[in-house]
Amino acid sequence: MGSTSAQNNEGLGRRDLIKRSAALGLIAVPTMSFLSACASGDSGSDDKVEKGEKTDKNPLAVNGSAPLEIVIFDGGFGTKYAEEARDVYKKTYPEAQIKFSATQKIQSVLQPRFNGGTPPDLIDNSGAQQMDMGVLVGKKQLTDLTPLLDAPSVDDPAKTVRDTLRPGIVEMGQFDGDPVWIMYYAYTVYGVWYSQTALDKLDATYPETWDDMLALCAKAKKKGIAGWTYPGKHPYYIPFSLYPFIGKIGGVEVLNAIDNLEPKAWEHPAVKAAFEAYYELFAKGYILKGTPGLDHRGSQGAWARGKALFIPNGSWVENEEAAIIPKDFKLSVGAPSSLDSSDKLPFGTIWASGGEPFIVPAKAKNPAGGMEQLRIMLSEASSKSFTTNTKSLSAFNGGTDGIELSDGLKSGVAALEKAGTNVVNPRMQDWYVKLQKEQIGVAALGEMMAGRATPAETIKKIQAFADAAAKDQSIKHFRHQ
């Protein structure tokens, strides 16, 4: 995409103009630290329940009388979909005693149980207190889900569960080699979320160039509306639109180098250009006042009430804020705007991937039961339940026939169609949770977007964090194959 500024400034692109216009020189403040997952400890019993008889209807040899424990993250998707799948399990295995619980404090509730060797049989490991996947995989604390993937699907025994999944889901659960450690159940569209109604009131369309984005933010500011907000207390939401922006500018290879913890990966010109563009939102006063002090619900609530036009987020936001999003909101998702005509990927490039990671612990007493529950969830009926209850797609490749799609879901599907093959899938958030959330997010991007650090300072800080992670032999390292 061409840039208005490039056309009017004798060939200068957005990158050059940003360098001249962004306000720099503010002082960085000390970083913060949070609890990180430390999945250690090998105590506890390794006793497993006895397996049942393997049959066509019971391909995983589930012991129908064995207890089953399930813990679900109680977040944007709620728990109704999981409760309905649990009820199917209970109907199939009426003798099984099922313990079902939900929490937002996954790490603080479950980490001690991992350390003690007494984890549940199935966990939805999601949310702000998500346990570090890389640590769990590196310390061999998860069950390989390959038997589930190779089992016959519920709807069509001629197809395996693997055959019924959306592209990329199996690969996301792989960290090193063939084993699949995680089943990502949701299929999330990440991007810049907005109200089409709000844009209509400003006589505007979604900005396809960064110049247009800034012009629209300026127009909104005159009306007393902020251009952007984000979860200031959880600034690792910012990459939901920033990472695909980087990939669009510099190509997928830039994101892969970042994931691979390659030296100087964060010093790539595409990263610098993207950071300077986002910093310009702060420098020009286009971010909602008070955003650094808002958590995810606070920022989403302010956005849903029309105080800001745009928010970086995932498709769960429609369900999470369903109670306050107005009926005439026309929820929509936009791909990153084009920086200038030299971008490597076209407008429409977006981040979409598996979300809501389900795991079966290695020390689970009933791993077959945990996988059977996932097999049930990956049926068409359960997928429809998930989509109906959460307004989001599932990993099951289908499950939307006969369902009236919500505005946000329709927009997400349209965005995927527009993207075509230009769908990126950064892995930082599931390979290196501490690096992504505490360091890149809170200690770096959060400081930059609050105006307490410049883009150059932020890049230097993040590269140092990434270099330290690459040298840290206590953590498992992963690479794009």
From TrEMBL:
Localization per record: Cell envelope
Pfam families: SBP_bac_1 (PF01547)
PROSITE patterns: TAT
SUPFAM superfamilies linked: Periplasmic binding protein-like II (SSF53850)
Tree of life domain: Bacteria
NCBIfam families cross-referenced by the UniProt entry: chitin_NgcE (TIGR03851)
Family, similarity comment: Belongs to the bacterial solute-binding protein 1 family.
The name this protein goes by in its record: N-acetylglucosamine/diacetylchitobiose ABC transporter substrate-binding protein
Organism of this sequence: Streptomyces cyaneofuscatus
